[in-house]
Design goal:
Protein name: ASB14 protein
InterPro entries: Ankyrin-KH/SAM_domain (IPR051631), Ankyrin_rpt (IPR002110), Ankyrin_rpt-contain_sf (IPR036770)
Strand order of the largest sheet: 1-2
CATH topology: Serine Threonine Protein Phosphatase 5, Tetratricopeptide repeat
Radius of gyration: 20 Å
Shape: elongated
Helix content: 40-55%
Number of helices: 12
Organism: Homo sapiens (Human)
Keywords: ANK repeat, Repeat, Signal
CATH architecture: Alpha Horseshoe
Pfam families: Ank, Ank_2
Length: about 230
């Protein structure tokens, strides 16, 4: 049954791709590539990439505001899902790994996924990315590697700037007496993956002359489709 559902998705996508209006996709603020990545459908994603859809199309602000982390890229969705197949497809097609407010590498480090971390680093993920939550610029990635020597070595091998760990903007001067929160769930929003409930009923209609290219494309797995039916 699951194979039948997936085959239906692929057949429908093959029919819809040729009549899709790319200008309307831009106007909608979300790409089919996002939907395929969010739903963890690597086969659909591969079809879209082969058809020339832009893997670096960014979610419009009116769409990404629904997420606490303000994600933009399809790659971020794939990394958040730990979907290695989709991540490989996107990176091989030229997806840029440093386009989101919270770096994709940060998400992979939080999950402790060695394969994802290695893959992102090999494709140029910024190893020295940091979240400015206080006056310091202590590299954020380090918070996830303090108890994991393997991850720490991976970061060091790709140019991790250890000097930032000892750099303070106040120097030898007296430090302000106020306190800062540091890394807490109230400051860094990459400590949780935002739900996709609002996408379940999202209707993206891409119109050309008398055509409807995408209608109610849900980022659900075949298993989820069976549960809802």
């Amino acid at each position: 049954m699951l194979k039948c559902i997936l085959k239906f998705f692929l057949r429908a996508l093959k029919i819809l791709i040729p009549v899709t209006d790319l200008a309307a996709i831009k106007q909608s603020g979300i790409s089919p590539v996002h939907c395929a990545a969010a739903g963890a459908h690597p086969q659909c994603l591969e079809l879209l990439i082969q058809a020339g859809f832009d893997v670096n199309f960014m979610l419009d602000q009116r769409i990404n505001k629904h997420y606490d982390d303000h994600r933009k890229s399809a790659l971020y969705f794939a990394v958040s899902n730990s979907d290695l197949s989709s991540v490989k497809l996107l990176l091989s097609a030229g997806a840029l790994p440093n386009q989101d407010p919270v770096n994709c590498l940060q998400i992979a480090l939080r999950m402790g996924n060695y394969e994802l971390i290695s893959l992102l680093l090999r494709h140029g993920a910024n190893v020295n990315y940091f979240c400015r939550v206080n006056p310091l610029h202590f590299p954020s990635a380090l918070q996830y590697t303090l108890k994991d020597e393997v991850m720490l070595r991976m970061l060091l091998n790709y140019g991790y700037d250890t000097e930032r760990c000892f750099d303070c903007p106040h120097g030898d001067k007296v430090h302000p007496s106020y306190t800062v929160e540091g890394w807490t769930s109230t400051v860094i929003k990459d400590t949780k993956v935002s739900p996709q409930y609002w996408l379940y009923s999202l209707t993206v209609i891409i119109c050309g002359p008398g055509t409807m290219a995408i209608n109610r494309l849900h980022p659900l797995s075949p298993e989820a489709w069976l549960k809802r039916s």
